[in-house]
Specification:
transcription regulation; HTH_HxlR; globular; DNA binding; 6 helices; HxlR family transcriptional regulator; WH-like_DNA-bd_sf
Length: 131
C-alpha cells in the first residue's frame, strides 16, 4: 500500500507521475567512476591529473579525462591551468562537491554494512542475468 500512496501523492495536475526528484543528480554524480573521482578529490584535495590517476589505477586516462570534464561542466570540479613549462593542471572539488561529501560518506557506510547481503543475494539469484 505504501508504494501506491507515494505514487498517488506524486501526480501532477495533468495526472502524470512526477519523475523521481533525484534522477538528474544520480545521472550526473553516479556515472561510472564519478563517485570515485569525487571521493579522491574530497579526500586528498587539489590533485594533478597524474596524481589522481595513481589514486584510481583501474580507470583509463581517457575515461578519467572525460569524467573530469563532465564534473567541471556540472560545477563539481575546478580545473586550474598554470602557464609553466611544462604546463601544469590541477583539479579540485568545488563547494558543490563538498556538499555531497556527507552523501558519499553515508553511501560508503551503507555499503560497508550491507555489501555482504548484496553479495549473498547475488550468489543466490537464479533468474536471468542482467547485462
Amino acid at each position: 500500500m505504501r508504494g501506491a500512496q507515494v505514487e498517488s501523492s506524486r501526480r501532477t495536475v495533468n495526472g502524470a507521475v512526477e519523475p523521481c526528484p533525484i534522477a538528474p543528480v544520480v545521472d550526473v554524480v553516479y556515472s561510472k567512476w564519478t563517485p570515485q573521482v569525487l571521493w579522491c578529490l574530497l579526500r586528498h584535495g587539489r590533485l594533478r591529473f597524474t596524481a589522481l590517476r595513481r589514486q584510481l589505477p583501474q580507470v583509463s586516462a581517457k575515461v578519467l579525462a572525460q569524467r573530469l570534464r563532465q564534473l567541471e561542466r556540472d560545477g563539481f570540479v575546478t580545473r586550474t591551468h598554470y602557464e609553466e613549462v611544462p604546463p601544469r593542471v590541477e583539479y579540485e572539488a568545488t563547494e558543490l562537491a563538498v556538499s555531497l561529501g556527507p552523501v558519499l560518506a553515508a553511501l560508503g557506510e551503507w555499503s560497508r554494512r550491507h555489501a555482504a547481503e548484496v553479495e549473498a543475494a547475488r550468489a543466490g539469484y537464479t533468474g536471468p542475468l542482467v547485462s
